[in-house]
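pinning this so it doesn't scroll away 📌
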Amino acid sequence: MINRVEKLSLLSEMIAFAKYDKDIRRIEYNFLLGVAKQLDISREDFEYLLENPVTYTHLKSHSERIVQFHRLVLLMNIEQEHNEDNNSAGVIKLYNFGLRMGLSHESITKVLYLMESFPNKIVPPDVLIDIFKTQYN
């Protein structure tokens, strides 16, 4: 299980991802707040992170990095639902965040490619895990 510092880092990273191109939209804010609740981060701490990002902490657990990548895929899809003209920028942003997390570029590329074939571009968690598991072994 990840500790509080790692949880704050994950959430801060997601906020940075959402802010990458402009302000956070209400739907993104609500999604991020839901992730904060899931991570047992208080609303006050979440609000603080919006203006005061914490230093990135690399997750040691490969499975936690996959879960975080999946959250970023979901966040990107929320973002793109309301911003169709910036599709390639979102994909590049997601790819770079995945590399920064230490995930293999082959797995990231495969997820981004397969994403197009799923409804709403949402890769099911089991498919995503299988992609990364294959590359990890």
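📌 and the second one:
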Amino acid sequence: MIMAIEVVIFQIRPTVARADFLQAVEETTTLLKTQEGFLSRTVSQAESGEWLDILYWESIDAAKAAITVFQTDQAGKRFSDYLDGEHFQVFYTDVVSESTERA
């Protein structure tokens, strides 16, 4: 069962090509898959142009522990360099309810 969700809302720099950014997403997903407590990741783009990176973890501690690896790995650094630092928010949430089936 998912215990925590990390939600990152951001914009990429206007000079970054979408294809380059999506390649960075793939590279960092590979990195994240090696991290203790990682469950899954969904990256999407809103109509407004903002991006949503939703990561599912076993715990908030696991999510926060991965930050150091992400910041020191070459793929993580490249991904971070593509982000517009002025339009960046991150939230860590504990799951309080979950439903996976239709009524």
